[in-house]
Amino acid sequence: MSDTHTHRVIPLQDLRPSSHALPAAALDDRLRLSPTGTLADTRGRALRDLRISVTDRCNFRCSYCMPKEVFDKNYSYLPHGDLLSFEEITRVVKVFISHGVQKIRLTGGEPLLRKNLSRLVEQLAALRTAEGRPLDLTLTTNGALLARQAQSLKDAGLQRVTVSLDALDDAIFRQMNDVDFPVADVLAGIEAARAVGLGPIKINMVVKRGTNAQQILPMARHFRGSGMVLRFIEYMDVGATNGWRMDEVLPSAEVIALLQQELPLLPLEPSQPGETAQRWGFADAEGRHDVTAGELGVISSVTQAFCRDCNRARLSTEGQLYLCLFAEKGYDLRHLLRGGANDTILASAIGHIWQGRGDRYSELRSAQPADIASTTRRVEMSYIGG
Q1: Which residues does 191 contact at the CB level (< 8 Å), separation at least 6?
Q2: CA Rg, the chain, in Å?
Q3: Residue 95 class from Cβ within 10 Å (0-12 exposed, 13-18 middle, 19+ buried)?
């Protein structure tokens, strides 16, 4: 296309939108909400999973997340002083634990770009749930820096990693990351993570019709029997910069049908409440799950909404709390952290915010795809993590 490198002018506030006002009750001493560990939103959904973006920077320019024509050399990233410090993140996590959070996922951008990240991992690994158990502590990465950091992350207490990998074919992979990064280096990072025990490893492949769909079977063949769980993710309409089109979405049902032609599969039960991926096991000759071959998953965030069981909150790089991956605005927790609020006030604010949550974007999009997808300005995935 002749306009491939034409800059799209997208106002900064579209990428990092303004905040919702904190609920009035959150700051009212008479309505103070103390943590019970059983917090629920307006639809009865518990708070169990917190995803924390530690940087808004990335060393890839994948078109579905941080397209190069927007996130170019002139793009203004957050100054370091605006980012939550590791100590601030740890303090917030302690409060979320008091409300029932059991799982922490570190994301970005690319989280391994955050300097001394293992120090944050060490702080979080020392925390315990109300039942005295360690947190389920994991991290999502593009794998580019994983080989050199896997051992230090494991030593600091990280349990598992999820690696984004959209193709095994080197030419397709370089096209998708758009910085000419070789797939061999990501595979080396995955092997380093496996070698130090950061597992079970999950591999996430975003599938775009017409771009990398031909890599579905090669990816499944490669990871079958590896002990890793490959997951195919429908290309999502996250943010305002990725030029999302429904005709580039390959529904998960079609992915499974394609796989079934060569690799017989059978559905498996969810491993935990609120799980986003539908699990499929590789079948043996008798039609039973071949545990040595393992399993794969599909995340159908466009064609099969899973809002009903969503138990996740997201904390942005500079302390905005988002209640949905497709949210328009967040809630400014950094203002409380740096404004002198104690943990009691912080816990009350988070509690009131979650209790007022009614987000169900994917369900609404399914009901009226054209309207909601075109008129809603959502926060960028690179800003709050996937």
Answers
A1: 147
A2: 20
A3: buried
Answer whether residue 51 shows pLDDT above 90: yes
Degrees to nearest 5, angle at CA 243 with 220 and 367: 80
pLDDT digits (tens, 9 = 90+) for 217-259: 999 999 999 999 999 999 876 655 555 677 788 999 999 999 9
Joined together, the tokens standing for residue 126 give 């020392």
DSSP track, 269-281: --SSTT--SEEEE
User: Is 282:290 a contact under the CB 8 Å cutoff?
Assistant: yes
Torsion sign, CA atoms 80, 82, 83, 87: positive
Strand partners, 320: 332
Q: How far apart are CA 335 and CA 318, in angstroms?
A: 10
Q: How high is the pLDDT of residue 377?
A: 60
Q: Which residues contact 75 (CB under 8 A, 6 or more apart)?
A: none
Secondary structure of residue 284 in the 3-state scheme = coil
Average pLDDT, the chain: 88
- The answer, yes or no, to whether residue 365 has pLDDT greater than 60, is yes
The predicted model gives 54-71 an average pLDDT of 91
Q: What pLDDT band is residue 288 in, cutting at 50, 70 and 90?
A: very high
H-type alpha helices, the chain: 12-15, 86-98, 117-125, 146-156, 170-177, 183-196, 216-223, 252-260, 333-338, 343-355, 361-367, 369-375, 381-384
Nearest to 19, CA basis, from 346, 379, 342, 283: 379
Task: Of 354, 236, 350, 318, give the one whose Cα is nearest residue 53.
Answer: 318
Of the candidates 221, 198, 88, which has an alpha carbon nearest to the alpha carbon of residue 147?
198
Residue 116: strand, helix, or coil: coil
Distances (CA, A) of 77 to 68, 80, 100, 304: 14, 9, 32, 34
316 contacts 267 by C-beta, under 8 angstroms: no
Structure tokens at 213: 């769909």
CA distance 317 to 315: 7
Say which CATH class 40-384 falls into.
alpha beta
